[in-house]
Amino acid sequence: MSALPPAVAGTPSWIVLSSIFDSGGIPQSCAVVAESRLHDAIACFLARKVLCSNGTGDDGCPGCNGWTDAATHPDFILSGAPGESPRIDRCRAMIAELSLKPVVSMRRLAVFFGSDGMSQGAANCLLKTLEEPPVYAHILLLLETNTLLPTLRSRCWFYVIPEEALSKSLAIPASDPEWVEWIGKASRGTVEDVASDVRDWCSSACEARNFPLAERLERLRIVFREKRLSLAMSIDAVILAIREEVPCEQIFGSLR
Ligand SMILES: [Zn+2]
Q1: Which letter does DSSP use for residue 116 in this model?
Q2: Do 166 and 11 form a contact (C-beta atoms < 8 A)?
Q3: How far is the CA of 59 from the centre of ligand 1 (A)?
Q4: Contact residues for 95 (Cβ-Cβ < 8 A; gap 6+)
Q5: Domain map of the chain by residue range?
Q6: Mean pLDDT computed over every residue of the chain
Q7: Region 181-199: what's the mean pLDDT?
């Protein structure tokens, strides 16, 4: 399972969706539209919350302890791979599995990838369960396009993570000449341009699975959003945090 790119967490849809999950009001049927490369991470992130007795996803409750190192869980039912729409027989089998009592958690979750490409017959299998789910059963539909069949759509909480809200991956300067070139370009731009580069670098760090670097970039991005830094201070902060790897607390302690 891949990690959720930090840029997703900043989109309004995701803030609303995660705050609903955090407040304990976990919807029984929920549909999320996003790029398919994010589906795996969204499914895993929400599954941890749904299957946790306390909604935190990592507190050592029986639901949390049910996760294996391979990110499988006895109450987590997946249709297949992201982008692949499940066929009617798979949908039937999943609904049957979902109706069984939870094994270790207080809930069960079935995730249907490629729900926008489901046949009418496959969608019909889900209707009854979407309408009257057993109290412990939860369904997550993942779509790449905003084209869920109306019969399904009217029975789900619906969220769209817009593509344009997500950053593009951008290579982080890796040598002295590349840093000199970036500083020259950044000095002619604005603080917003620097923040945008940091966001795009964060995507590229996530893709490379360099999560410590992605976290440093995300913290920097939050500081840019919350503090009014001058252009020169922003550039200095990037160089210290990313090139010199100075901890953010130390940088912003001294910049104040
Ligand atoms: Zn838990």
Answers
A1: G
A2: yes
A3: 4
A4: 110, 125, 126, 129
A5: 6-165, 176-250
A6: 86
A7: 88
Distance from residue 39's CA to the centre of ligand 1 (Å) = 22
The CA 26 to ligand 1 mean position distance, Å, reads 14
pLDDT of the residue at 256 = 47
CA separation for the pair 1, 107 (Å, rounded): 21
| 243 CA from centroid of ligand 1 (Å) | 37
- Say whether pLDDT at 139 is over 90: yes
- Is there a contact between 138 and 50 (Cβ–Cβ < 8 Å)? yes
Please name the residues in contact with 116: beta carbons below 8 A apart, sequence gap of 6 or more.
33, 85, 143, 144, 145, 146, 147, 148
Query: According to the CATH classification, is domain 6-165 in 3.40.50.300?
Result: yes
- Residue 242 C-alpha to ligand 1 middle, in angstroms? 34
Residue 178 CA to residue 184 CA, distance in Å, equals 10
Task: Kindly report the number of other CB atoms within 10 A of residue 66's CB atom.
Answer: 18
